[in-house]
Amino acid sequence: MLPSFHFRSVLGVIAAFGLSSPAYAGPPFVTDDPQPTEYHRWEVYQFASLSREDGVTGLDTGLDLNYGAIKDLQLTATLPLHRETGAPLDVGEVQLAAKYRILHQGGGHLPIDVSLFPRVILPTGRGAGRARVLLPVWGQRNQGRWQFFGGGGYVLNPGEGNRNYWVQGAAVMRQMRPGWQLGIEEYHQGPTAQGERAVTGLNLGTLIHIKGPVSLIGSAGQGLNRRQSLFYAALKLDL
């Protein structure tokens, strides 16, 4: 794969993550892409994500449901359970989103796909604060076996001591052979609270088609400026 790739000239968003919540992102990456689920089709991810920093481990498991409601419109719901070091299993943060593609790569003079993907993160877990809102735009360029996607967005993060913040990132994927893709991403998230540091990191990811509607996806990453590790695995069903 290519090394770290800056794609900030193409608008998009990475979904920011926290130690107590799953990444709101495009599996298997933190960075998402602008491709909505096909009309009247489902993409279902049964996922597990693990994050670790400063001796605290957070685990999220659940379902990520995506439905092509109409042409170029995807509806998304993420339904997780969460557990972290020293705490019992709890309901995670439920996420509701809608992805709408506003530009197509083959049309006009702009050779990329572009989508809006606003998302609401609901404070459904124990001790949760207030709802957050992610306001993103996504961009992607396909070229042969390569896919380039990424960009940036803004998160409204209300609550005492919290800060609104920007998130941004870029990803590159390549089809190595039919049914097998490899990729790399760089992501950045601004401080989410007063006194907190920003996060910059790298992730390596893969997608392997097994048979029929079934695929396996996964990623592993490391913070570059903080001792933070991320792991993600999912069974994907295209229905």
UniProtKB/TrEMBL annotation:
Keyword Signal: yes
Residues annotated as signal peptide: 1-25
Keywords, sorted A to Z: Signal
The keyword Signal appears for this protein: yes
Record protein name field: Transporter
Species in which this protein is naturally found: Novosphingobium ovatum
